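User: Let's play a game. I give you a shape written as tokens, and you guess the letters that built it. Ready? Here's round one.
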């Protein structure tokens, strides 16, 4: 997973938490984690976070991680982005 995708997860976690009106402490309690872990996740600091912790937070927020194919863009895609 590249840093852009990790940053997207962090932004989504923060937005979903705020949409629910929850504090970081509330989300931490609901997911069985420490508030500092939630803060690190929202700051895009994955140095001490494992995938299971991220999954747990996402599940509490009603989301999940998924896999998708990633590859180089096709020639058609490159031409389309260049032209318009």
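Assistant: Ready! My guess for every position:
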């Amino acid at each position: 997973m590249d840093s852009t995708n990790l940053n997207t997860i962090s932004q989504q976690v923060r937005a979903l938490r705020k949409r629910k009106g929850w504090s970081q402490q509330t989300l931490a309690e609901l997911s069985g984690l420490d508030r500092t872990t939630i803060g690190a996740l929202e700051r895009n600091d994955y140095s001490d976070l494992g995938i299971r912790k991220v999954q747990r937070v996402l599940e509490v927020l009603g989301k999940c991680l998924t896999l998708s194919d990633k590859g180089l863009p096709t020639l058609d895609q490159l031409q389309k982005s260049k032209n318009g």
